Every structure is written in C-alpha cells, then in structure tokens.
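ugh ok fine here u go
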Amino acid sequence: MSNDFIPIMLDIPESFETERLLVRALRPGDGKEMNEAIRESLDELKPWMPFAQSMPAVEETEQYVRESQVAYLKRTTLNMEIFRKEDGRFVGNIGLHHVDWDCRRFEIGYWIRSSCSGNGYMTEAVNGITNFAIQVLEANRIEIRCSALNERSAAVAERAGFKLDGVLRQSTRETDGKLHDSKVYAKVRGAEF
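structure:
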C-alpha cells in the first residue's frame, strides 16, 4: 500500500440495504431511539457489553452517537445502526471496529434490541456489512470475536458463514470481571470470498 494512503480521503457510502434492513451511519439525534433500545435490552446486553453495565442517560447515548459519527468520518471505526425497512424500527447496532487499513482487516461488532431478536435480522445485517466490507472497502480479512460463553453471538457468526479460526484462552476480561476465552471467527479473501 502506498505510504501516502489517507483513510479519511476514502469516499465511503454512509448506508446500504439488505432485503429487510437499512443499515446506516449514526447521525446526531439518533441517541434517543438507541437509548430506548438499550433500556429494553439491558438485561440481555449486560453480560457482554461494557456500555450496558448500567442504564446510560439519553445524553450519554447521544454523545456516543456523535462520537461515532466523527469516527466514521475519520474512518477509524465504522459504527452503523440497523433499521427495519418496513416500518423504520431501530433494530440494533453493527460496526466495523479495530480497522487495519494497511491489511484491510476489519472486525464486526453487533448488538440487537431484545424485541427484534430471533428473526434473523442480525445474521442478515452481518451478511450485509460483510458484503459492504468486501465490495466497498476491499477487505482481505473480516473477523467476529466473542466470548466463548456468548452462544448467541457465536451462532450469528456461524450462520453468516464465518469459520472458527480458533479460541484464545483467557484473552478477554468480560463485564463479570473474569477472564473469558474468546472465539475468533473469520472470512478471508481467497478462501471464503
């Protein structure tokens, strides 16, 4: 890669669609709706998500939204929200984290609101953001990492066709304060796409 490559200069679309979903970058004013979804889903998110250890104020969620918008523009983290196309309902959050532009490696992170879980939305969103990373960002490697105890997150990765690269023993301190094994799933150019 050229030494003069500057990620902020990349023209990256701020949204894409799948069959049932609109996935778009966060915008100022999105905090209220996201906060409502966090409130609804706090018990399910708490074991896995650091932001869900206590209920954030709407202002805190709005601050996260605005910081995410800045990060998207800087191309350091590409957080996006998921909406149902049929009624505009906020479904959850998905993003590309731990971005390595030199290797074109991206890690997908996600969470879903409780009332939308069990409908295949997250698998659809993961497939969508995977295609976005491959086609738009020219990804070479896309990862999903989760606690080995987070069976639902691992199931999404598996349904989306990600291969288990391995288990990193006691590699992450989770929200319970304990060290957990981490599963690392991946799709790699030349193998899975």
